[in-house]
Design a protein that fits this description.
- There is one protein chain.
- The protein has one domain (44-239): Rossmann fold (3-Layer(aba) Sandwich), CATH 3.40.50.
- It is 49% helix and 13% strand.
- The protein has eight helices and seven strands.
- The protein has helices spanning 11-41, 61-75, 88-97, 129-139, 150-164, 178-193, 212-223, 232-239; strands at 47-51, 79-82, 103-108, 122-126, 142-145, 173-176, 206-209.
- A seven-stranded parallel β-sheet has the order 4-3-2-1-5-6-7, sandwiched between helices.
Length: 241
């Protein structure tokens, strides 16, 4: 007696079965990516993530400022996390690499655009943007936003939304460069808040700071009374991400 389950003979049905099997394996791959990243990066604490343009040149003001801030954070005891690529990401890793705390890059596999910079003590590469985003969020005690484009804005509003909705604890969200960010912050205050699109207190979730040492001080000031460890309620909320 043949115990094998016969495969469908209709080509469309067979294609559907194969597609379902691929989707199932894809889910296992995603779960494995989360597990691997969590196990490898769980000791990175406390940490600050620095976001910014991949197009910033090494002699640009933004690059040099990010490198300075990162070195100060590293010397202050913070691991510094970036996206692992060029531009501001490289500056963040370079500054931390010169300091006393780990320089961490969470890279992403892209067809052409991204290559890993050489200033990383720990480099971890993701296949999926959303898994990478979750790890940025789970690892970070603060976010420092340097000037950047669509990707930086995406990362800023992702973090801002999670804090606003209570999905993660309130962490410092620091915009570096008042000249660059002033138009956005004014629009948030004068349009979103005035029109009731966000709460009247929501614009205060953002800090605009130009001085590198003041960035470090603002993070320490935020955690001075409460410490860096999340409360039980905050940890439970983060599990729901």
């Amino acid at each position: 007696m043949n115990s094998k389950i016969p495969m469908p003979t209709d080509p469309q049905v067979a294609h559907g079965v194969q597609s379902s099997a691929r989707e199932a394996w894809r889910m296992f791959e995603i779960i494995a990516e989360f597990v691997t990243a969590t196990e490898r990066l769980r000791a990175i604490h406390p940490a600050v993530t620095i976001f910014g343009s991949a197009r910033a040149k090494p002699d640009s003001t933004a690059y040099l400022l990010a490198e300075d801030i990162s070195r100060r954070l590293s010397e202050a005891g913070f691991a510094v996390i970036s996206g692992g690529g060029p531009g501001i990401m490289e500056a963040a890793n370079k500054g931390a690499y010169a300091g006393s705390s780990p320089s961490v890059g969470l890279n992403i596999q892209l067809p052409h655009e991204q290559h890993a910079n050489p200033y990383q003590d720990i480099s971890h590469t993701f296949q999926h943007f959303f898994a990478r985003k979750v790890m940025f969020t789970k690892l970070s005690s603060a976010f420092v936003m340097m000037p950047g484009g669509f990707g930086t804005l995406d990362e800023l509003f992702e973090a801002l939304t999670l804090v606003q909705t209570g999905k993660i604890r309130r962490v410092p969200l620091i915009l570096v460069g008042s000249a660059f960010w002033s138009g956005l912050t004014a629009w948030i205050r004068e349009r979103l808040a005035v029109d009731g699109m966000v709460g009247p207190e929501d614009p205060e979730l953002l800090q605009v700071i130009d001085d590198p040492q003041a960035v470090v001080d603002a993070i320490f000031d935020h955690y001075h009374a409460r410490g860096f460890e999340p409360t039980t309620a905050e940890r439970e909320a983060e599990f729901a991400l």
